[in-house]
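Module 6 notes. Inverse folding takes a fixed backbone as the condition and produces residue identities as the prediction. Think of it as a translation problem where the source language is geometry and the target language is the twenty amino acids. Below is one complete input and output pair. Work through it position by position during the lab.
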């Protein structure tokens, strides 16, 4: 591969803050809000034009549950209250799902950031980091003004893909250690104009007991080659046999209603074939084109064949691919599936979860018994390589299998809160974030309290 030398001098430093959060997604917003409320001047960098990442751009609705009592940390509880104030009850009173409205969540996130005094920088792509003496001094961004720099005392990597960590020279890993495959990505979409009652009655006529609730909180699903037999599977297989769908189209299908959007469902599919890597520029682009054709076939099939969808239409595509796993840092502590099976607990714990090993694309999965859980240690969020860097979200230090359990949104949000609290604590104490002994930190600053 050809390589070129590229140096551009004279990049202006447009912003300076105590804390710079890179990535305005599931972990990033809680990180920035918590850092600012903790007394740190804070700037959040987001490459898109909406906060929320997988929640609002990749359309990952609803929140999956941790299956652990008392796992909601303060920002999560606040978001649920603010959503309720906007007329959206995130609880269906039956399941543990957190049903939310993406557009309202985007507004709530902007509001929370502004109220906390966070500087928001949209349309800013992180392209590099300037590291001196094991500390990130600046991040380099591409904006409408061209290249700019942001200086900060502490940096939080909430990019999901460890973009800042890799730019700073932190070692990372990717894919399943046994196969090299990433978890398959999804290209979610929404459909509007659905007759929920007609759809509900149709699924009941198939003796489909998959969903425990009914509209406006409702789900339909099928997954082939599983122990569970889904009532919709023969319908989709027939579509394949008629040439309306491909085998890849019917491998995984799931749809959820969206609270506050009558007649709309969020499709947790298509699941893009695992041959497309989440960590390659060319693969990622090819995956988008490939998956868009899958969306076209699936939506057309639903309209033609599923009662309740007759007058529906494709209303929205996600503006971001849903990547379940890509790059993961090598931190001071690397979590593995042994921690899952041992129900590991840590003195420096920052979160707890019991979400199952949800490794799409691999024949690996397991559940913990009710009431059991494992914890995530602070040391999995920091690295020896960079003193003033902390990582939150799905790219923390973990094996492929363990990451398949900890990657869900509530856990990532809690990790973001912790990262923000740690950045504020670092400013007050002068202790670098990767040297903080979290078990000795003041308990009142900790989002997750043991």
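Target side of the pair, the amino acids:
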């Amino acid at each position: 591969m050809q390589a070129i030398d590229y140096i551009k001098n004279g990049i202006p430093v447009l912003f300076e803050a105590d804390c710079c959060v890179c990535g305005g997604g599931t972990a990033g917003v809680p990180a920035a809000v918590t850092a600012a409320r903790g007394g740190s001047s804070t700037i959040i960098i987001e490459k898109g034009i909406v906060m929320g990442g997988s929640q609002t751009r990749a359309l990952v609705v609803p929140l999956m549950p941790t299956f652990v009592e008392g796992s909601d940390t303060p920002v999560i509880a606040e978001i649920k209250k603010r959503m309720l104030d906007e007329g959206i009850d995130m609880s269906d009173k039956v399941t543990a799902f957190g049903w939310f409205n993406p557009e309202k969540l985007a507004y709530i996130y902007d509001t929370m950031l502004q109220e906390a005094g966070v500087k928001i920088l949209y349309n800013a792509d992180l392209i590099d980091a300037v590291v001196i003496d094991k500390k990130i001094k600046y991040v380099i961004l591409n904006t409408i003004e061209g290249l700019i720099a942001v200086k900060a005392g502490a940096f939080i990597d909430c990019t999901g893909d460890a973009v800042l960590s890799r730019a700073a020279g932190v070692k990372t890993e990717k894919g399943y250690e046994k196969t090299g495959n990433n978890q398959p990505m999804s290209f979610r979409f929404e459909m509007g104009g659905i007759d929920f009652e007609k759809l509900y009655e149709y699924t009941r006529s198939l003796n489909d007991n998959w969903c425990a609730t009914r509209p406006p909180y409702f789900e339909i699903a099928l997954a082939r080659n599983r122990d569970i037999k889904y009532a919709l599977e023969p319908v989709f297989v027939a579509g394949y046999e008629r040439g309306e769908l491909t085998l890849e189209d019917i491998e995984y299908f799931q749809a959820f209603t969206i609270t506050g959007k009558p007649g709309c469902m969020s499709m947790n599919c298509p699941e893009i074939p695992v041959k497309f890597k989440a960590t390659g520029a060319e693969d990622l682009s090819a995956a988008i084109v490939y998956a868009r054709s899958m969306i076209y076939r699936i939506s057309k099939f639903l309209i033609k064949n599923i009662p309740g969808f007759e007058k529906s239409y494709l209303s929205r595509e996600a503006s971001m691919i849903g990547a379940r796993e890509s790059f993961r840092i090598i931190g001071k502590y690397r979590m593995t599936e042994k921690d899952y099976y041992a129900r590991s607990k840590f003195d420096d714990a920052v979160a707890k979860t019991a979400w199952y090993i949800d490794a799409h694309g691999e024949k690996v999965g397991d559940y913990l018994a009710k009431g059991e859980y494992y914890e995530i240690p602070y040391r999995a969020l920091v690295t020896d390589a960079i003193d003033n860097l902390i990582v939150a979200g799905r790219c923390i230090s973990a094996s492929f299998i363990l990451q398949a359990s900890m990657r869900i949104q509530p856990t990532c949000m809690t990790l973001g809160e912790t990262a923000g609290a740690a950045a504020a604590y670092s400013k007050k104490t002068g202790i670098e974030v990767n040297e903080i002994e979290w078990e000795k930190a003041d308990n009142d600053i900790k989002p997750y309290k043991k």
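Reference fact for the lab report: The first strand starts at residue 13 and ends at 22.
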